[in-house]
Specification:
Length: about 100
């Protein structure tokens, strides 16, 4: 699951793991992981900083898909309130859907 911040910052990068339940539009990482969510649940104020700090460079969906699950899970466990990346995404999706 490797990741560059340019596309994330432009809000063009999306998680293949999620679809917006109210439309066919994808949910972008910046929409899912708001600064408020990140500050509450992590040691970072943005998803870009979390990924960058973990050494994950994401410029495309392919980069995201190439990040090893074990590596991102270990980093998430160490730097957030979650046990895994999937758990973090699941919680962020709950927060996202409850606010939309």
């Amino acid at each position: 699951m490797d990741c560059s911040m340019e596309n994330i910052n432009q809000n063009q990068y999306r998680s293949n793991d999620l679809q917006n339940p109210t439309s066919e539009e994808p949910i972008y990482l910046n929409d899912l992981f708001t600064s408020e969510f990140m500050q509450i649940y992590t040691k970072f104020d943005s998803i870009e900083k979390l990924l960058s700090s973990g050494g994950f460079e994401v410029n495309s969906e392919e980069d995201y898909d190439a990040i090893p699950d074990k590596e991102i899970d270990a980093f998430v466990l160490k730097t957030t309130n979650f046990q895994s990346w999937k758990e973090m995404i699941t919680e962020a999706a709950k927060v996202f859907t409850s606010s939309h």
